[in-house]
Amino acid sequence: MRIGIYGGAFNPVHNGHINLARKAKERLTLDKILFIPTAVPPHKTDDEFASRQDRYNMLALAIEDIDGAEISCMEFERGGKSYTYDTLVELKRIYPDDELFLIIGSDQLMSFHLWYRSGDILSMVSLCAGVRENEEEKHQMLHYAQNLDGLDYDRFYLFQFPAVRVSSSDIRQRIKNGMDISGLIPQKVYKYIIEKRLYRV
């Protein structure tokens, strides 16, 4: 099988995440996409997060119409800081004969050399990055990738898609400020956030 691996805090999941996942599945002809919510990313603290159950529930609502999409709670179960390398080692044990594609956004690509054991990560997966429909940004990302130690350029995929120019932190701040977020996240997730009164001061 061809399996996409898409990790993130998803705090909350937004339309940018979903757009990238759909584009990756189409472009790479993936049989499955595993969404893996982080326990705690290495650069963040636990107090910035909605509960694990709420993040799982929002993600489940957001991906229910994506064929082949699944959620893995392996990082929740492992606990502690979530390192992509550790997750991929575990996935290689689960899927020893399958091809893994690591799906990341443009911001993540441009700092990939700073990731824990980045070279070992590149030995285990094909690297797939989404870029906004911006030729200058695409050129910068290609230049970066060409100089990334350990990257097999035959296993690197870059694809453009209409991105939502917003981050999860922007959405949380908008909620705190009483601003509208309905066009930035899946409608079912929007309803969930309103009903649960998430991210409010």
Describe this structure in words.
The protein is α/β, with parallel strands linked by helices and 201 residues long. The chain is built from nine helices and six strands, in the order E-H-E-H-E-H-H-E-H-H-E-H-E-H-H. The chain has a six-stranded parallel β-sheet with strand order 3-2-1-4-5-6, sandwiched between helices. The relative contact order is 0.19. The model has no long low-confidence stretch (mean pLDDT 92).
Key descriptive features of the protein:
globular; alpha/beta; 9 helices; 201 residues
Short characterization:
The protein is an alpha/beta fold and 201 residues long.
What share of the residues lie within helices? 40-55%
| Quantity of strands, as a count | 6
Q: Stretches where pLDDT falls below 50 for ≥5 residues?
A: none
Strand content: 15-25%
Question: Mean pLDDT across all residues, rounded?
Answer: 92
Distance between the termini: 44 Å
| Helix-strand makeup class | alpha/beta
Radius of gyration: 16 Å
What is the molecular shape?
Answer: globular
Output the helix-strand order: EHEHEHHEHHEHEHH
Spatial sequence of strands, sheet with the most strands: 3-2-1-4-5-6
Helix count, per DSSP? 9
Q: Sheet with the most strands?
A: 6 strands, parallel
